[in-house]
Design a protein that fits this description.
A: 326 residues, mainly alpha, MetI-like fold, 14 helices, 2 strands, 70% helix, globular, B: 449 residues, D-Maltodextrin-Binding Protein, domain 2, 3-stranded antiparallel beta sheet, 11 strands, 12% strand
Amino acid sequence: MRAFGSRSKAASPSQSPLPQAGEGEKIRPTQLMEKRATFSSTTIGLVFIAPMLLLIFVFFYWPSGQALYWAFTLEQPWGGGNQWVGLQNFQQLLSDPVYWNSITRSLVFGLASTAIAMGVALVLALFTDRELRFHRAYRSIFVWPYAIAAPALGLAFRFILAPEAGLLSVLNSIWPNIWNPALDGKDAMIAVIVAFSWKYIGYNFIFFLSALAAIPRSLIEAAAMDGAGPARRVVDIQLPLLTPTLFFLLVINITESFQDSFGIVDIMTQGGPARATELMVYKIYFDGFKGLDYSGAAAQSIILMGLVVLLTIVQFRFIERRVHYK
Amino acid sequence: MHAKFLGAAGMFAIAAMLAGPAMADKTKIDFWFGNTGDIAKRVQEQCDRFNQSQSDYEVVCTSQGSYDASLQNTIAAFRAGKQPTIAQVSDAGTLDIMLSGAFYPANKLMKDMGYDVDWNDYFSGIKSYYATSKGDMYSFPFNSSTPLLYWNKDAFAKIGKDQAPATWEEAAEDFKALKAAGYTCPLGFNISRDEIWQFGEQVLAVAGEPVASKRNGYDGLDAELVFNKGTWVKFIKDLKGWYDNGEAVLKSKETGQTFVEAFAAGDCQVILTSVGDHGNIGRTAKEGMNWGVAMLPVYAGTERKHSFVGGASLWVLNGKSDAEYKGAAAFFNFIAKPEEALTWSTVTGYIPVRNSGYDYLVKQGFYDKAPYAGRELAIKSLTASPATADSLPGIRLGGLLQIRQEMANGLQAIFINNADVQTSLDEAAARGNQILRRFEQTYKGKQLP
């Protein structure tokens, strides 16, 4: 750790002389401080942030508040009224071993898909950044998966991974029954992890590529002249300078893997076989939108929100320390 | 610039005033439904026929993507005060809307609007499924179906049989013989939430056994699940036995071919599915394949009872104007015509819901012709026993979709993880009962109508 800290310190002098060169450099907080134009009136400031605050209120605080309220009630779906039940919804959930299993599964899903999505995206971005042949084409192509809606993605992967008729059925013809997400819970989990990761590889790729482009060429070239090969340069220069991006993507990927997976699960496995892919967010979707159990789904949302907040705090508390923004 | 703008606005205002009375001649009503694909097209055609048949009302029919989505969108719209006049609600959502008070009861609507409807014209099995305990109809049965056993006549000929199994014992023999004759998939089936309908609810229905106490929930919200205590345990054990012997094979979207597709392709020799698939299988069946349908088997010595109707009914929602309700009543009057029943049953696989419609179809020779012959068995199955005070009219349970999911999870544990049958079904029933108790508590103080 000490070693990479000193290297990034060494990196800063060469960066600072040309900060406005427009090479994708982000404006750093310190520069902002130096050039800030001050507004004397807080009213103007409030007016500027009002539209954003309104949006956040309408699309986040209002629904969250509603969910929080419903979580402590039993709500009739057609709006015929509700009754206060206190912590009953939470007690029922937390005393249910099946629910705890779905929490464990969500964690496994979140960690595995984040690792795959970030790892593969990083490798692809590093190769593209080295300007290998066709790198321009890769740059556009790798972004596409993120633009595909989850249900379409789920359909495509359901076909690709189908044990009898899909592309992977070749495996079964060589080794019978080696791959069957319809009957084997582990295979089903792998299938949804692969589908979800595939989508986020594209997303992560954009961020990694632009972060790599922001690393001064002179640094890499200097290292090359000192005799460092491509792998060494990745480990000692590019990765340490990527830590802010790595951290940002880690937080985003973990959060999204807890929230954005229900579409894929719904199309590919419906939570089966035998609950093997029943993630927390899929259960919320199913209970709330299909089962009309609004209060149960609301209570589960609150627990999920708590868990994501907790995970994010842990990441900021223990991982961000190792991130060097400058 | 300013003057121009005002001028334009004025023109619009005048245009709106002129158009106003002209538009008012036609009252627009919204109808939201959940069917998709070909069926959605057929619903749309029916709406067009209604719109062309008269000039007072215009019904605007919109598919919402699925039963669940349609119900969800209708509820959201209702809570925001922007509900459609007519909404389709599937069997699983019936109890919620029935307890909500958010609707204009169908029987009252027709009476208020001056239509005289003979409610007893509905098939008793269909009527009782949707009616209140007093026999009042709050909604109109719309797309109705019931499950049948589909069998491949060519394959059965190979084992020397020219008829479908009538009992499960006979079916077991047939599966064994088919397997011995080299068929790899004598019975194609699946165990997701969607198949609980034919493999659970309907198998019990024709056996005359309940899924839940209190006449399957019709006599009170305090009903409890009992599917883990009777014939179903034996049936699941048998099914598991066939599965273990390779006589029953799981076929689903996840494996790459659904059991309906597998049957149409000649890969599976027997399936259980809705009569609604009859048209689809007829169109997609392998060329030259001889196949037929039969009523669901029962165990030997069991007296056959009528099966339950599946599908959805149409509800009229609260908070609309009198003119809109008049339009809705006119629409219901239109789709109840026997000619409409004929067109509807011809283009979809759904069955007529009234005796008059059925008689009309019979008179037209509908059931004699090749692509439609066999569908009369659905009516026979639905009317196999009379609806009496203590017979089971259908299933009226809160959270039915979630209960089906629990049953499916239980089956998946049995078939995939080799869990013990009785233990898994007990657990599914216990979890299902929790859902029922939550539902009962949610509607505390409300009485089943």
